[in-house]
Structures are given as C-alpha cells and as structure tokens.
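the three lines:
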Amino acid sequence: MIELVIDHDGVNWNAKNEVLSVSSPTLDGLDLALEEQMRNKGLVKKGDKKKVFMAFDNSTIPQWIRQYAQHYFNRVVEISG
Amino acid sequence: MSQEEKSTLSGGDYEVDDVTAGAEPWEPIETKLVLWSLAVAAIVLILGLIFVPTSILH
Amino acid sequence: MASINRKWYSGMTTQEDWWAVWLGLFFFVMGFLSLAGIDLVGWATYPRIWVFNPLDGGKGDIASAFHALGGEYSLTSKEFYGGLGWWSILWTYVVFTCATCLGAFCMKWNLRKFFLGWTCIYFMTIATWFVGHHAFFAANTINCEKYGLDFALSLGGGASFILALIVGLIIGNFFKPFANFLSEAAKPEWYIKTAIVFLGVKVGYLPIKAALTSAKLGKEMAGLTGELFLAGAVATVVAYLIFWPGVYTISRLIFKLPRKTAAVLGSGISICGVSAAVATGGAVRAKPVVSVMVSALVVVWAVIELVVLPGFFTHVWPTTADPLVAGSAMGMAVKTDGADAAAGGLLDEFMRNKIIIETDGAVQWPEGVITASAVMTKVWIDMFIGLWAFVLAMVWVYKIDKRPGETVLPSEIWHRFPKFVFGYFATWFIYLGVFFAAGSGAPEGMDTLLAAKSGVIPVEKGFRKLFFMLTFFSLGVITDFRKLAEASFGKMVWVYLISLFLFIIPVAMLVAWLFHHGMEIPNIAGTVM
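prediction for all of em together
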C-alpha cells in the first residue's frame, strides 16, 4: 500500500510522500490529481487498482487544540489505473 | 521545527464564509440520520429505565 | 516532522492525552508504595483555612496555612513531612516541574517557554489557593466562630477555584502579552486529564475511606460508585443521541448552516466540546478550520457554563435534594473535560457546604462524590464520541459525499479514543481491588486500608486539588471573551446560545434526573474520616 501524509493549508488539501505530491481545494479533486500523477509515474497500471493510505498530519491543528483531541482522520482510497 | 510553528490554522485567519455560507438543501439522508439517532436514543432510554437500578422506574 | 497516528501505539510519548496517563500513573504508583510501608508522596502541599488573627487556642494560624499532607497521614515519616510546612510548596514545585518538563520535552514544546510559564502559573495558582482559604471565603457559618469570625461565605474550597479562574480570566482578557507568555504552559486539558487519573484514585479510595469508619458505610460507598458507573453510561448515550440530531437540525433548518458545519457544531455544542468538534470535523472530512472555529467558541461558552451552572444547580434546581442529578447533568451539559471537572469540583464544594448549613451539621457528605458523578458522564461521552464519529464518517463517506473507492478505517475509533480514561479506570479499580482484598472493611484488613490511606491522600487530595487549581487558572488564561463579539463567528454564536440554554441544558437535566433521581450520598456526620 502506498502511504501519504495529508494536511490542509487553509485553502488546499495537500498529500505527499517522497515521490508523490498533489494539492486540491477538495478531497475529490485531490483523489483525481493523485490518480493522474500515479498513472503518469507508472505507479498504477491500466486495469489495476492500488490502495493508498493517507495519514493526517495533526500538527496542522493549532497546538492549543491538540490537548483536547489528537486525531483528525486517516483515510484509505482505491486508485484505479 | 516545533509543533507550534508547523500549524497553519491558528490565530484569527478564519475564512468564515467557507464555514457558515453555502448551505446545501436538506436531503432525505439527513432526515434518516436524525430519526435513526433519536430512535436509538429512545431504545436505549427504555432499556436503561428498565435495567438500570437507579432509574426512576425502580 | 509530521505528527501522524499510524500505529496503535502512535503518540504514546508525544501526546498530552498519553502524558496525562503517564503522570497520573507515576504518582499513583508512588502513592501505592505505601502498602509496602514506603511513603514517597507525603511532601504533597495542601492549604488549611487561615485568618490573620486566630483566637487563642483557635484554628487558623497563618504559619500552618500550607502543610505537607504526610505530616498528618504518613505512617512511616510523619515527623519528617510534618516539619516541611510552607516548604512543601517548593518540594511540590520541584517534583512536578521535573515531571511536566519531561512531558513538555517529549512533546517537543518550547521547553524554556514552558518552564517559565509553568513556574509563573504554579506560584500564582498557589497564591490564589492561599487567598481562597482565608476563613471569610472558605469557612462556613457553622464553623466560622472557631476562626474568630461572625460570618463566612461558606464557599469551602470553591473560593480558591473561583479566584484562580478570575485571576486567569483577567490575565487572558486584559493582559494579552502576559497570557501569550504563559500560553505554552496554560494547558487546562492536560492538567485536568491528569487530575482525572488522580480522581480515579479518589473514587477507588472512597469505599476504603468509608470502611475505615464502618464496614457497612464502605460497602454502601462501593455500591454507589458502581451505580454511578452504570447510570452515567446509559444517561450519556441517551443524552448524546438526543443532543446531536437536535443541534444539527437547529443549525441546518433554522440557521441555514452547511452540513459539515452543522455536524461539527452538533458535536461541539452537544457534549464533548473541542474533542468532539475535532473528531466530527475529521469524520465528515470538513476543512480543519471548521473545527478550529467551533473549538474557539466552545472554550468561551464552557467557561460561561462553569460560572453559571454550579450556583444554579445548588440554589435553584435540583439543589441538595438531588446532588447526583446535578453532578450528572453537569457532566452532560458543560463542554470540555476541564470545564466540566472544574464545574463538578465547584458544585461539590457548594453542595457540601449547603447541606451542612441546611441541616446544622447533621448531614455531611464526603468530598469528591459529586465531582465523580460529573466526571463519570463526561468520561463515558469521551469514549462514545469515537464511536459516533465512526458512524458519521461512514454516513458521510458512503452516503452523503459518496466518494467511490474510499474506505473508513475501524482503527479511527482507537485513534480517537481518550487514553487518559485508562489511567482513570486503572487507578479506580486497583484501589477498589485493595478494598475487596482487605475484606471490604473487615477488622483483619484494617491495617492494609490504613496503609493504603497514607499513600492515597497526598495523591487524591493534594495532587488532584493542585491540578484542579491549575486547570481553573489555565482555563481563565486561554479564554478570550472577545471571540464572542467577533463578527466572523456571527451565526454560530447564536446557534450555540440557543442550543445550549434552550435545548442541551434542559435535556441534560431531564436525562440526569431519569437515571440519578433519589441516589443518596452516605452521610458521614459524626464519623472521623
């Protein structure tokens, strides 16, 4: 499974690891951008499906809030080639 | 980098329109969610009143 | 470096929630060693009621206004700890500075800023604790004569709590640069989670304490804590599943808010406050700013509830006729663990003093039971929110947003689980185990119970009250009432106001009454505890 770290900069969702880096104002847009980038880099072949795990970077949440809650979300999406 | 510096959403830079504007129309799934929640509450309430020894039914 | 929850053990050394467990358990173990005849916690500082001019032979000498609890309760080092007096403040400071700074270091906070902020907060908290124990505030109309006074406000330890909150609020609202200077160490939620672990010691100790006067009373107390456990669980599930759809509908249909904002508000206003707002925001995949905005409102409203509700419940309804209805309702109505436990502590002080005055001392309740009832419902809801967020995540991902290919992970429930409750339940059940293992108050187990008592009191009384005081003070420091006037919050302030006072609080009171009405706290008047 491919793993990415996802965060939000106030405008865009951003997901990245050492080889992939995508941004979009919506999660739908993010998934589409990821699909395209994975195809371009040959990480998913035509007709194949690959699971991608996205772990939210909780340091995006302001520090004063983190004492109340330490987790935003993690998600798994299936990317089709 | 400390965890404080990494945060990008602290302070007063809220984009309030994003948060409070643009209400979508009410959809049947929301009715379902609300009613199911209340129905489960009612079931737990009835079972609780029957089985919890400190409830007003005892 | 990114802070992510990948494995089940992620965050064990880097999150406040876990650090509340480590701090709480560390001091619990130190206290527990008293069962082996080793007293390592007797230095815990604690205030006494004082006056400037005590009567001859009367109480309230200012020289003993602070003392080490081991001087009273230690079985092995009474003389040593008895000699510490005011120096116990420094002992407590040094030990807790080391412990909290270790936590701050592991959590990668700015250590220098934390140390300086902690030091200021600690000593200002101690100062308010001292002032709040002047007999005029803390004595009641029954015992004020012993201090040479004709009248006292009968606030008990509540005066110190109120004073700490007021001083914190003054700093947070009028001395912003100083509040910013303190901010690294103004962590009410960390302090209260640690205090709740100490409260677990208290709840486990209540039957032991009662059994030391009579075995029957000990069993009654063990039964009462068990009943609170069960009633609290059911009441919170019922209340939450009524609160959430109610606030969601109000937000959507009356105030025309978007779905995700309404969902986050529904959780934030309902019970859990900030933790629920963040959990729900993540579950419905809202932009984090939605949770941040709701959280900013929650902390302000929580302090308003903290100020209003203890007095209301004590003097208007349900009063001393139903103290555990009040405690339970507090847990369901007041947002955030910190404000709720603080409000429960305040209610405890108000109620206990009121019943003494009403009955001329014929009825006295042990300290901490009402606080425990307020925390019990809150702890349950803290656990329940993880499940509810999971349900919401499935509804949003699979039904509302309908995002093909996305899966909601069951591990989310674990990552959102409040870890400090492990410390709370562990310390509670271990001391409950000691109570039963020692024969539930049988004469042959008395030595064991006395040994346990010497190690428990510094933890459940000294450390817990200190961390409650730190919570009150820090809550004040981080609360900025100007947030309510900010135009950007507009509609959300009104949703909050209407939902809270016209819906949440009345429903909380009703549900608490349904499950706690008639529960009685054992009367300890005439017993030496």
